[in-house]
Amino acid sequence: MQAGVWRVSVCQLAANARATTAIAAAATKLQAEKVYKQNPTDVQCQLRKGCQGSAKLALNSTREGGNSRLNERTQKTTAIVPQLIIKRSVSYSRYSASTIMNSYCKELTLMTYDIIGFDLDGTLLRYDLLEMTTLIYNALKQFLVEHKGYPEALLHQKLDMDFLQKGLILDGQRGNVLKLSHEATILRASHGTRLLSDDEIVAIYGTDRRWDVSTAFYNDPLSTWNGPSTLQMRALLDYFDMPCALVFAQAVDIVDRDGTSSGAPKEYKVWQDLLDGLMQNYSRDNFSNDKSLYFKSMRAEPQRYVLRSSEKLISWLHELRANGKKLFLLTGSNIDFANLTATQAFGRDWHQLFDFVVTFAKKPGFFTMKRPFMIVDNEAKRELPDSELSLEANLKSGQVYSQGNWHQLHQAMARLLNKDTSEARALYFGDNIIQDIYTPVKHRDFDAVAIAEELSLVDQKDYAFNDVLSSKFWDSYFFIGNTPTLWSGFIAYYAQICVSSMEQMAQMPPTERIVSTNVNGFYPALPKQLMSSNLTTSWHGGGV
After folding, report:
1. How far is the C-alpha of 167 from the C-alpha of 174, rounded, in Å?
2. At what angle do helices 244-258 and 270-282 cross, to 10 degrees?
3. What are phi and psi of 327, to 5 degrees?
4. What pTM value is reported for the model?
5. Which residues pair with 127 in a beta bridge?
6. HEC states along 176-227?
């Protein structure tokens, strides 16, 4: 259906379906058939317990005014259950009718997908976050001192885990670190490592507590991915980036201290220097030449940094393929580094777990552009020279590729399924909210599952990396007080569901229908501080 439609809340639909008047029942039936294209008999299913209270309130409101006030009753229901009607343009609905009427909750049924893809780092494989954070932190400090001339005092700064958090925003020119709300307002900020007061935030960013660059990122994350904005701002989206916050802040402190006689600089260059350090740390050209302390350490002791994946997860992947699913691995890591980490996590035959493996994928551009694929020599662990494939070439199952584009990969897997690409439904698991969740869902016909290890702080009392991911300085990754963060907003709006790890997924059979307890998709439960928030969702389905 091409026109914009009103997605009516579950509880509202259920209440109307139970209304005693013929007009209300007919209206509900018509709306259910129009919006969800489901069998109308499914619409009469029993309410899930979590929605019964709201449904009763909605039902009471429909009984007050008689048949002539159906529209008014709908408005009352909306007032009682806020944000349960969302207007959005969609071509068709992928909701399951039973889900619509049983609960206003997101769900995931893997068996409804033909193609299932996975990110590698931070998704299929996990790192020892304490060891890896320490390594990256020290490598970046050493780079600034040895290559950018920063005082050796920087090397003597201590690793303060409490200052670190995934998802922080660097305001490079001002030397500030920001934490944003789901509406892009600045919830908390520091200059260097010093916490800024509310008055200072307002003095710097205005009474609306907004920075135009981060607001542009919020409105369209890809618009700031390249170009001049990259020298002004950095969103620390994963655990490879997370240590940057502290190195950046401590370097700003040193610049301020050494510049006290002439005053603090109007514009800081720390971020530009640190960006060079990240490039040296992670450039694929430096994997084997010892220029990157990070790669050198990882090659020497991969078992120190990479956690071994469970046999249960490996069996889970096998079971997906046994159920006819085509699996692909899509990673930004080059083949040599991907092989190092995946071998440690899954064993030497890791690539045989998938129908296709794509390395050095250059996400998010992989989903939005049409870069050609390169063939990878799986023995030498490198791209074959002059192996660029045409955009019309048919990719071969079992081959490892580099770079490339989603359009061509989707076509190849659809051919294996004997389906048209429009019929071959795809799902992707990833931990980078912009590269793995926002981009494929927003710009391609994907569904996505967000991996947020921070959820382990909510549901695991003995979580091993509590000291790495919990922060009193910044509060939770998902909220400050009762206000959702930028990343809670993106997860709620774009992710099918959000889980703490693939190991959690592997505890359930692939054939099992997973239903979250909340409309925002956090599984198994919504962090309690978000229960009274005003997050909105743009759920893309999970049913038929």
Report:
1. 18
2. 140
3. -110, 140
4. 0.81
5. 306
6. EEEEEECCCCEEEEEECCEECCHHHHHHHHCCCCCCHHHHHHHHCHHHHCCC
Residue 485, SS3? strand
Question: What tokens does 443 get?
Answer: 């710009």
Measured distance CA(74)–CA(15) in Å, rounded: 10
Residue 37 structure tokens? 């294209």
Q: What share of the chain is helix, strand, coil (3-state, %, to 5)?
A: 45, 15, 40
**388 DSSP 8-state letter:** P
pLDDT single digits (tens) 412-433:
999 999 999 999 999 999 999 9
Sequence length of the chain is 544
d(CA 180, CA 185): 5
Q: What DSSP letter does each residue of 257-307 carry, written as one string?
A: HHTTTT---SS--HHHHHHHHHHHHH-GGGSSSS--HHHHHHHH-HHHHBP
Residue corresponding to tokens 């909750």: 105
Nearest Cα neighbor of 242 from 462, 431, 428 is 431
How big is the CA angle at 171 (ends 168 and 176), to the nearest 5 degrees? 80
Q: CB count, 10 Å around CB of 509?
A: 10
Q: Is 163 helix (H, G, I), strand (E, B) or coil?
A: helix
**pLDDT tens digit string along 496-525?**
999 999 999 999 999 999 998 888 999 988
Report whether 511 contacts 110 (CB < 8 A): yes
Rounded distance between C-alpha atoms, residue 177 and residue 3, angstroms? 42
Q: Is 481 exposed, middle or buried (0-12, 13-18, 19+ CB in 10 A)?
A: exposed
